[in-house]
Design a protein that fits this description.
The complex is a heterodimer. Chain A is of the alpha+beta class. In chain A, 64% of the residues lie in helices and 9% in strands. In chain A, α3 (67-96) runs antiparallel to α4 (100-128). A four-stranded antiparallel sheet of chain B has the order 1-2-4-3, with no helix packed on it. The chains are: A alpha+beta, B alpha+beta.
């Protein structure tokens, strides 16, 4: 009798975890989307996405360059997103309080708002001709519907009988986990120790012809590495003038093992 | 509010708009005021040309055939939505099933085409839409077979708090959006200031609003401010050098002293 109760409780815990995770995901999703609009632009510790610039450019491509159109579209989206966040948070609160019925109602309101948002975005994507975003928003729309289905039918799904693990399995799993974590951590720190310098370090040029040079950048190289490489090239070759820089397209690179490759075309200074 | 009927409406509204706009995109084949869309004609002509079929009649026939199926799908969805609105659930289900069947056929044709033309990213896109349609139909049909649940939101304390919090946050966000718009809109025309990063090489970090006019203004302003310099060459930093999401575009201007 005692064991049956335990099994039953474990089942409930397992199913509630899925509901909690769904609610936490959507609450955080809309919270961070809303924060992105409140913060606006890139700041220290928050880059986000410049939605105003993105939406303004979309409207401008329609011939509606006045920022009022982008502002109104963004405010409508922000209002829907904020209310979706509020309803998902309310569902989370009611789930915590074990008011499953209320939690479902609040979650449903959040899902209705989420579906409205993604339908609204998808309409825009087709008008603006942005089929990449259309796919992205369609997937989110689909995820919202599936989340709702899983949330309401989770009780009918068999999850775990219990969460207990045997002592021997715990020991082996812990030992294996610790070994793999140690190996991965040492590898990551060693790579950081040896390679971080590549982020800014100048890269040597290779002469491939009378007036053509090649620079193969490591994956970590950023704009500083490019600038330092150009400075070094100019310093090493004071008689040469850079005429042209050709960026090798990805199709000329070896699969994913090559980083950025540039070719420098030069001329002798007069 | 009936929970499952509402979901049915959302599924139908989404797919009806999806097909309606796809059809409009075929009717309006180019870029016009208030409509950009995608240029499917050019895409089809290029795809057929890659097969060695350069006569545009083949691309035109293929596009017309696809548009015809899309119109059939749209009509099915409109009838389904209309019947759902009249409370004729059985009829709505039948029309949705017809629409989904034609749409699945369409995405199957697209997928075959994607493989023939070697367009793997489009193959993934069409595969995702196909599975979304099938699952939408499963939800539409089988979800309705379980008991309907009616949601009644009364103005209880928690709902009032939610509305107050939502309204306050919306006002705060609206203020922030308008303020950001006002303070950054000048980036749409204002020239960008360059920084000399290597002797004779200037870096221009363009803001997200920067477009072709900003570029033109920037070069013009640079030449006016540096009358002794001649612009030799402009290099656009590729994505690998600009992986941070903070910058829209990085330009390097290579200069030399005028003789």
């Amino acid at each position: 009798m005692k064991n049956e109760n335990l099994v039953s409780n474990n089942r409930i815990i397992g199913k509630e975890i899925i509901r909690y995770l769904i609610l936490i995901y959507w609450s955080l999703y809309w919270l961070l989307n809303s924060l992105d609009k409140i913060i606006g632009g890139s700041h220290f510790l928050f880059v986000g996405k410049d939605r105003f610039a993105q939406v303004e450019r979309f409207f401008d491509s329609l011939g509606l360059g006045n920022p009022i159109f982008a502002n109104v579209a963004l405010i409508i989206a922000a209002g829907l997103e904020i209310f979706a966040f509020v309803f998902f948070s309310g569902a989370l609160y009611h789930l915590k309080k074990k008011n499953i019925d209320s939690s479902r109602s609040w979650f449903f309101a959040g899902i209705v708002l989420t579906l409205t948002i993604f339908t609204y975005f998808s309409i825009g994507d087709q008008i603006f001709g942005h089929h990449g975003e259309l796919l992205e928003h369609a997937i989110y729309w689909f995820m919202a519907i599936l989340s709702w289905i899983i949330f309401i039918y989770i009780d009918k799904i068999q999850i775990f009988d219990n969460f207990s693990i045997k002592k021997k399995q715990i020991l082996i799993a812990t030992a294996l986990t610790m070994i793999l974590i140690s190996v991965a951590t040492v590898s990551i720190f060693w790579h950081n120790h040896t390679s971080f310098i590549e982020r800014t370090q100048a890269v040597n040029t290779v002469k491939i012809d009378d007036n053509k040079y090649k620079i193969e950048f490591p994956f970590l190289a950023g704009s500083k590495a490019f600038e330092n490489s150009i400075a070094k090239f100019k310093k090493d070759n004071p008689t040469l003038k850079i005429n042209y820089i050709y960026t090798a397209p990805t199709t000329l690179r070896l699969g994913f093992s090559d980083g950025l490759i540039i070719y420098i075309q030069t001329d002798n200074k007069k | 509010m009936k929970e499952k009927t509402t979901i049915r409406y959302f599924i139908l509204i989404y797919w009806t708009f999806f097909e309606a706009l796809t059809v409009i995109d075929k009717i309006i084949p180019d870029v016009y005021p208030y409509w950009v869309g995608a240029d499917f004609y050019t895409l089809f002509v290029k795809l057929f040309a890659s097969l060695g079929i350069t006569n545009p009649i083949f691309a035109t026939i293929a596009l017309a055939g696809i548009s015809s199926i899309e119109i059939v799908v749209l009509v099915c969805y409109i009838f389904s939505l209309s019947n759902l609105n009249k409370g004729k659930h059985k009829s709505s289900e039948q029309w949705f099933y017809r629409g989904v069947s034609f749409s699945v056929l369409l995405f199957s044709l697209f997928s075959i085409g994607d493989q023939v033309f070697g367009e793997r990213s489009n193959l993934l896109e069409h595969g995702i839409f196909l599975i979304m349609l099938i699952v939408s139909w499963v939800i539409f049909k089988y979800n309705a077979q379980t008991e309907e649940r009616v949601i009644k939101f009364s103005f209880s304390k928690d709902i009032k708090i939610a509305f107050l919090a939502g309204t306050f946050l919306t006002l705060l966000t609206s203020y922030s959006i308008l303020d950001f718009s006002k303070s950054t809109f000048s980036n749409k025309s204002q020239p960008v200031k360059g920084v000399e990063v290597v002797q004779g090489v200037y870096k221009f970090d363009f803001p997200f609003l920067g477009d072709k006019f900003v570029f033109e203004n920037t070069i013009k302003a640079f030449e006016e401010n540096n009358p002794g310099l001649k612009v030799d060459y402009i290099y656009t930093a590729p994505d690998e050098l600009n992986s941070k999401k903070k910058t829209h575009i990085l330009l390097y201007v290579f200069t030399e002293q005028k003789n």
